[in-house]
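hey so u asked for the seq, here:
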Amino acid sequence: MKVKINQNELNKAINIVQKAVSLRTPLPILSGILIEAKNNELILTATDLDLGIKTYSPCEIEEEGSIVVQSRLIGDFVRKLPSNSYVFIETKENNNMEIKCMNSEINILGNSAAEYPDNTFNNEGVSFNIKSEVLKNLIKHTYFAASLENIKPIFTGCLLEVKNNVCTLVALDGYRMAVKKELIDYDGEISIVIPAKTLFEILRIIEENKEETEIVVSESHISFKVDNTIIISNLLEGKFIDYEGIIKDNYVSVVKVNTEDIRDSIERASLLARDDKNNLIVLDIKDCIMQINSSSEYGNVEENISIEKEGEDIKIGFNSKYILDYLKVIDSEMISLNLIGKNNPCFIKEEKEENKDNYIYMVLPVRIS
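ran it, structure tokens below
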């Protein structure tokens, strides 16, 4: 292999595929990146066998070839090279790779590309396109509510449903649930569970993409094609919970509050709440005032904010982290807390007319003495 490539292009490609590099793996070769030079493109591939990412970058090729090199080493070296400079890559005997750029040179001992798992990126199944901005919205508003623990593996994923031109993404972890709906230009029906980890990586990759993402769903995999990058992931097996059966509307109290006011107040109150295993804050709602309290052995915090309330006064406790996770992703000026009782779920909605029923966040209360 003998290649000339712009440092910016190479650095960007390495950063993209590194998201799939396995840090702890019984297969040492998976801590590397497969680099292939052919058809005037440098193709970088990484996989942890659950998630795979392949990206294509334009380059000048004098000699085609392939090699696997240690991800962290090549990533750190290329990142520290001068921006917009040209990088010259050449493979030598015994899987040695030489990288030169201006006054810098590094030799890396790699592995044969033949040893790298043959992870196919040709996913065949149902295909549809979605605006990247729409996909970004769906993921951003939900993935954080998925479980981080494998007690129920299905909860570490997000349910993706498509029906009647509406795409719904749902995440829950047993303490909270996020449901986001968006209109899309596809009238087929799909119901699959995607690992939340995959969706988080998709979110990072499509961050600046203003065009469309092509999605292909097969029985066991889902793939996303964004610009010059393909991401493929295993789907999770099992039946997702009936999320629609969880959503209730028998509210005893509806509280409208300014988003910035409640976010700032909870952030301050959570400074003490962090010392409690439940990150407990208590909302004491009376008339047109919401009092937010938290306490620990180091002291207590009291915040008072103005609200509009319909229904009963109520005193209810929450894990502050669960509320803040929601408040950090919305851009609505006002939200409503829809309360069923002090020991029942609270449903939080944006007070934006177009978002009112398109995004529902449910959080379970923490019992307070």
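The chain has a mean pLDDT of 94. Residues 259-273 form the longest helix (15 residues).
lmk if thats what u needed
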